């Protein structure tokens, strides 16, 4: 899977969102809140998990595919879909042909909609998702933003080395898409009212901010230069942050 470097936006604004999970109404409310305008050059970056749980998966995927400047990286839900498709490239045992066979990991995690699609649609969705990058780097006037779905694993303190390790190490790849170690440590320290240890606040070099989704939180949460923005289920609304807001620290403490 690719790593993508996106140069500075010379026309409009850049926005970051995560874990849309097929929820069209929430997605549209988030865009309306910031008056998102692709016509004026605004760009949108999703930190993975476009799909599953909601009922508008194909529509969100269609938006990602056809809108100008709607980028997304891959999340663990996209990864589960890829695994499901590659294991069973034909959908004979699912959906309208369903025969009570055991479901897949993807199916158990909000992904049953995929098995119900006709085969040509499944192939199209698979191709789109398989082509999503795993990491994106977005240059902005204020600094560089790195995007990866779940986390940069503990002990990785250089963005360029991490980006390379994701490509070469299965373990790092899986942690990058599924990991919750850093935020779990932060929650433990929060619960005890203690300052975070250096192991998790040590900045990741070679990038100014790293944006993550994946782990549900009440409000956007910063740990060192890692920023977690998945508020989609806790508050019922998706968080959408502009690059300007992120770098000026206006929307998170
Ligand atoms: Mn996730």
Binned strand content: 5-15%
Count of helical segments?
10
Q: What small molecules are bound in this structure?
A: manganese (II) ion
The CATH homologous superfamily is called: Metallo-dependent phosphatases
The largest sheet has its strands arranged as: 1-5-6-7-9-8
Alpha carbon gap, first and last residue: 33 Å
Mean pLDDT: 93
The SSE order reads EEHEHEHHHEEHHHHEEEEH
Key terms:
253 residues; alpha/beta; Purple Acid Phosphatase, chain A, domain 2; six-stranded mixed sheet; 10 strands; binds manganese (II) ion
Short description:
By secondary structure, the chain is an alpha/beta fold. It has helices at residues 24-33, 57-66, 76-87, 105-115, 119-130, 159-168, 170-178, 181-191, 198-201, 243-248, and strands at 3-6, 14-17, 43-46, 70-72, 135-139, 144-147, 209-212, 221-223, 226-228, 241-242.
What does this structure look like?
There is one protein chain. The protein has 253 residues and is an alpha/beta fold. The protein has a single domain, classed as 4-Layer Sandwich (Purple Acid Phosphatase, chain A, domain 2). It contains ten helices and ten strands. The strands form two sheets. Strands 1-5-6-7-9-8 form a six-stranded mixed sheet. A four-stranded mixed sheet has the order 4-3-2-10. Helix 1 links the parallel strand 2 and strand 3. Helix 3 crosses helix 4. The protein is globular, with a radius of gyration of 18 Å. Bound molecules: manganese (II) ion.
């Amino acid at each position: 899977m690719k790593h993508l470097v996106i140069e500075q936006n010379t026309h409009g604004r850049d926005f970051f969102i995560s874990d849309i999970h097929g929820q069209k109404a929430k997605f549209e409310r988030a865009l309306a809140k910031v008056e998102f305008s692709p016509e004026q050059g605004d760009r949108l970056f999703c930190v993975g998990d476009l799909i599953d749980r909601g009922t508008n998966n194909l529509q969100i995927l269609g938006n990602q595919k056809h809108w100008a400047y709607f980028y997304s990286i891959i999340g663990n839900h996209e990864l589960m879909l890829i695994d499901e498709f590659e294991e069973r490239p034909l959908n004979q045992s699912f959906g309208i042909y369903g025969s009570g066979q055991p479901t897949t990991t993807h199916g158990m995690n909000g992904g049953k909609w995929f098995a119900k699609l006709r085969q040509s649609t499944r192939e199209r969705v698979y191709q789109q998702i398989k082509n999503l990058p795993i990491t994106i780097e977005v240059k902005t006037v204020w600094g560089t933003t790195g995007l990866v779905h779940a986390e940069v694993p503990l002990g990785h303190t250089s963005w360029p080395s991490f980006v390379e390790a994701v490509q070469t190490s299965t373990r790092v790849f899986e942690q990058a898409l599924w990991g919750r170690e850093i935020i779990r440590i932060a929650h433990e320290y929060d619960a005890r009212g203690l300052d975070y240890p250096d192991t998790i606040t040590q900045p990741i070099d070679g990038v100014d901010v790293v944006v993550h989704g994946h782990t549900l939180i009440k409000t956007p949460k910063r740990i060192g230069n890692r920023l977690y923005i998945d508020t989609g289920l806790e508050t019922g609304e998706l968080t959408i942050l502009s690059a300007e807001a992120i770098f000026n620290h206006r929307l998170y403490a």
